[in-house]
From TrEMBL:
Pfam families: DUF4199. InterPro entries: DUF4199 (IPR025250). It comes from the Bacteria. The chain crosses the membrane at residues 37-55, 67-90, 142-167. It comes from Nitrospirillum amazonense. Keywords: Membrane, Transmembrane, Transmembrane helix. This is Uncharacterized protein DUF4199.
């Protein structure tokens, strides 16, 4: 089972990591933030569909078509952890290769947005202080890695729960039997 976790987790991490790298560099600044976020989470969902595939394959090939909820959930969570680690590392590589200063770009966008809304000088000063604290935290690679991991891991938990819930029923999408030739 460890081999399945590593294989499918690596696939999920690479798919989501490459998609995140493309989404943050190619259209950066050309798409509204909400669209970029929706595309990002949609690609995470597609990448983490490997959990469903892994649980189904394990159920059908190794377990004779029957899997209980908890083993299916643990398989999915293992894949989610590996995929999340790969995704977080891909973010670090993307930032390094593209010389991105994500936290400063984000902070400037937040401050500009509040200025456009007509925020008071006190509110802008408070926001600027808050953004400076965020910059200091984000400079720590362990903080940054955990923050990035926590973007994708909850999606993996959700996919794991749904996959385990559906696939514990052996009648849900049963394995195809090879036709008998006479």
């Amino acid at each position: 089972m460890l081999r399945k976790i590593l294989t499918y987790g690596l696939a999920a991490g690479l798919i989501s990591g490459l998609a995140m790298g493309v989404l943050t560099t190619v259209p950066h600044g050309h798409l509204p933030m909400a669209v970029e976020m929706a595309l990002g989470y949609a690609t995470m969902l597609v990448a983490l569909s490997t959990i469903f595939l892994a649980v189904k394959r394990h159920r059908d090939t190794a377990l004779g078509g029957v899997i209980r909820f908890w083993p299916a959930l643990f398989l999915g969570l293992g894949i989610s952890i590996v995929g999340g680690v790969i995704y977080a590392l891909a973010w670090e590589v993307t930032q390094a290769l593209n010389h991105m200063d994500y936290v400063n770009d984000y902070a400037q966008a937040m401050i500009s947005q509040e200025k456009a809304k007509g925020a008071s000088d006190e509110a802008l000063a408070a926001l600027t202080a808050e953004m400076d604290k965020m910059r200091a935290k984000y400079a720590n690679p362990f903080y940054r890695l955990s923050l990035t991991f926590n973007e994708i891991f909850p999606v993996g938990v959700l996919v794991s729960l749904v996959s385990a819930g559906l696939l514990r029923n052996s009648r849900f999408w049963p394995a195809r039997r090879a036709p008998v030739l006479a």
